[in-house]
Design a protein that fits this description.
The protein is mainly α. About 70% of the residues lie in helices and about 5% in strands. It has 4 helices and 2 strands. Strand 1 and strand 2 form a beta hairpin. It starts with a helix and ends in a 5-residue tail after the last strand.
Length: about 110
């Protein structure tokens, strides 16, 4: 019974790493190529290859060391690269500038 619970925990860990890798791959694929250069990060093709290999390893190669290395790559993309891409691409805002408040532009109290 204890072994069954442990195998379920390991399976959930594998699934979490797979979901993390797939999310990172989709986000890397949807970002613009010029945003990578503007953010001074590696090329888009580099991240697509690394994250694609991570997804493939998670799907087909049940070696925990390789899966953990892929999880680290996915986390680096999500924590470091993606925020830089969002900042360069406008930060996810729909137009506007950095001085816009919730009710329009801030004009300094005039």
């Amino acid at each position: 019974m204890l072994l069954t619970g442990f195998s379920t925990l390991i399976w959930l860990l594998y699934m979490a790493m797979l979901v993390l890798a797939v999310v990172a791959l989709v986000l890397a694929a949807t970002a613009r190529e010029d945003a990578y250069r503007a953010a001074d990060k590696q090329k888009k093709s580099f991240w697509l290859i690394i994250l694609g290999i991570t997804v493939a390893v998670n799907l087909f190669v049940p070696i925990l060391f390789l899966q953990l290395a892929g999880a680290v790559a996915s986390i680096v993309f999500l924590v470091d690269v993606r925020p830089a891409l969002k900042a360069v691409s406008g930060g996810g805002r729909r137009g506007g500038s950095s001085s816009d408040g919730p009710y329009g532009p801030y004009n300094g109290g005039r």
